[in-house]
């Protein structure tokens, strides 16, 4: 198996959705492994006073990677000013403030972030269109975390 | 939403008092917070307050209605414009809780305590609630609207059936009627001094004042959060005021939002 064949094998391996490939021929063995994306663990910003206390394990739902933010200069993001919980609607049974694809005006309310019964209505600083809503309803958000991508007009 | 015309009222507060520098009284509004937000957007100064005899659309967390019968409750909203970083502003909710609990306890003698973050309770029954709204318009300093609803002279039997076992009023708790203007004045003065302490001394002053009336620490609690239920002992507050719950497995979980139930007291979230 020459270098070209190995290259072809790597290309093939890269193009397929498989994590590991083992290939053996005439006593030579090639093992290809992809770096597995580790679950994203939210930082633990709280001091844990007792030394023996275990850190809460992230549940599977939290480990899913968040939506990738495209590095597109034409889009602007709206970020959370506080640590809290993200709500897309003013009440659990109410319609969401906005959907993806909606046109929004400057000053229009996009969502609420709540911390300790402080409700922060987040307004759009731009006139434009909602390209992407980056957080699921009722999920925790960090300080400065992007919530929406907007294509300004 | 019906909003009556406003008249400015003079409570004879000391001239250095920031909160209550203007107090606008309405007979009836949808929600004092909504009126106060409109005033904030129109450029009202820090300390501007809205008080109403009745609310037709009084509300609490997550759009829950707040029972606001005419003349029997105190419905108040105060506008702050704190020169503090936005991420420290959620502490205003603990500040409002601590100040209101102190004002009511001292003015009425009722055994007012706080259920985290700022439910005003007597025993395990809800005497009042506080809903704070933060406005962060782009490029402008943030505005904080503290909305406070207190059940003053509401007879227990006139609460809606679903609230009768979980609510109380100052009248029901003490057997005595109280005048709303005196309570309003007491609350504004306590809010003002708590706000001054927050700005001069920082978050520690807010947490310390909250602990004096806080009933949650040391209790077995259940916190219903959007991430699920956390049950255990409430063991402390973080520097940001989040409630730390130690679960049966020994995990210490910070709770940032959610309904907290004191399990020994058997109270219900409200």
What can you tell me about this protein's structure?
The complex is a heterodimer of chains A (153) and B (270). Chain A is 11% helix and 33% strand. Chain A is mainly beta and 153 residues long. Chain A has two domains: 3-33, no CATH class; 76-152, OB fold (Dihydrolipoamide Acetyltransferase, E2P). Chain A is elongated. In chain A, 22% of the residues are buried. The model of chain A is unreliable at 36-66 (pLDDT under 50). In chain B, the strands form two sheets. Chain B has an eight-stranded mixed β-sheet, with helices on both faces. Chain B has a five-stranded antiparallel β-sheet with strand order 12-11-10-9-13, with no helix packed on it. Classes of the chains: A mainly beta (153), B alpha+beta (270). Chain A binds chain B through residues 46-50, 52-56, 81-85, 87, 90-92, 94, 106-107, 114-123, 125, 138-140, 143, and chain B through 61-64, 86-87, 89-94, 117-118, 130-139, 142, 144, 225-227, 236, 238, 240-242, 244, 246, 249-254, 256-257.
Please report the first level of CATH classification, the CATH class of the largest domain in chain B: Alpha Beta
Q: What is the arithmetic mean of pLDDT of chain B?
A: 93
Count every helix of chain B, treating DSSP H or I runs of 4 or more residues as helices. 6
Query: What is the CATH superfamily of the largest domain in chain A?
Result: RNA polymerase II/Efflux pump adaptor protein, barrel-sandwich hybrid domain
- As a whole number of angstroms, the C-alpha radius of gyration of chain B is 18 Å
SSE order of chain B, one letter for each helix or strand: EEHEEHEEEEHHHHEEEEE
Q: Strand count, sense and closure of the main sheet of chain A?
A: 4 strands, antiparallel
How many structurally independent domains of chain A? 2
Strand-pairing-aware structural class of chain B: alpha+beta
In which range does the helix fraction of chain B lie? 25-40%
Number of strands of chain A: 10
Give me the CATH architecture of the largest domain in chain A, please.
Beta Barrel
Oligomer: heterodimer
Largest contact between chains: A-B, 37 and 44 residues
Percentage of residues in strands of chain A: 25-35%
User: Judging from the principal axes of the Cα atoms, what is the shape of chain B?
Assistant: globular
Q: How large is the count of helical segments of chain A?
A: 2
Main β-sheet description of chain B = 8 strands, mixed
CATH level-3 fold name of the largest domain in chain B:
BirA Bifunctional Protein, domain 2
């Amino acid at each position: 198996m020459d270098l070209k064949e190995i290259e072809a094998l790597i290309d093939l391996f890269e193009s397929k959705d498989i994590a590991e490939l083992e290939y053996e021929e005439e006593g030579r063995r090639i093992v290809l492994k992809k770096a597995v994306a580790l679950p994203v663990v939210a930082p633990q910003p709280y001091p844990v006073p007792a030394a023996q206390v275990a850190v809460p394990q992230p549940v599977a739902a939290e480990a899913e990677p968040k939506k990738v933010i495209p590095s597109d200069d034409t889009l602007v993001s709206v970020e959370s000013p506080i640590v809290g919980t993200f709500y897309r609607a003013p009440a659990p049974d109410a319609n969401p403030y906005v959907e993806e694809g909606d046109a929004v005006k400057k000053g229009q309310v996009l969502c609420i972030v709540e911390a300790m019964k402080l409700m922060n209505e987040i307004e759009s600083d731009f006139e434009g269109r909602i390209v992407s809503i980056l957080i699921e309803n009722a999920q925790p958000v960090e300080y400065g975390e992007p919530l929406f991508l907007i294509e300004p007009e | 939403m019906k909003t009556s015309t406003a008249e400015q009222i003079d409570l004879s507060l000391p001239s250095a008092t920031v909160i209550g520098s203007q107090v606008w009284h309405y007979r009836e509004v949808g929600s004092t917070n909504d009126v106060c937000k409109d005033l904030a957007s129109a450029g009202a100064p820090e300390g501007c307050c809205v008080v109403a005899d009745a609310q037709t659309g009084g509300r609490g967390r997550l759009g829950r209605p707040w029972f606001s019968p005419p003349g029997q409750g105190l419905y108040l909203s105060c506008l702050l414009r704190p020169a503090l970083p936005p991420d420290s502003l959620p502490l205003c909710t603990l500040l409002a809780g601590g100040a209101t609990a102190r004002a009511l306890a001292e003015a009425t003698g009722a055994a007012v305590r706080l259920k985290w973050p700022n439910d005003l309770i007597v025993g395990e029954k809800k005497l009042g609630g506080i809903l704070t709204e933060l406005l962060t318009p782009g490029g402008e300093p943030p505005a904080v609207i503290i909305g406070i609803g207190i059940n003053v002279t509401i007879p227990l039997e006139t609460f809606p059936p679903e609230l009768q076992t979980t609510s109380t009023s100052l009248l029901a708790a003490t057997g005595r009627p109280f005048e709303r203007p005196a309570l309003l004045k007491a609350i504004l003065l306590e809010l003002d001094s708590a706000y001054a302490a927050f700005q001069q001394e920082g978050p520690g002053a807010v947490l310390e004042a909250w602990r004096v009336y806080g009933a949650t620490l040391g209790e077995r609690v259940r916190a219903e959060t959007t991430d699920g239920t956390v049950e255990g002992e409430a063991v402390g507050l973080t520097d940001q005021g989040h409630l730390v719950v130690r679960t049966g497995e020994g995990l210490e979980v910070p709770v940032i939002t959610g309904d907290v139930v004191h399990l020994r007291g058997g109270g219900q979230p409200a």
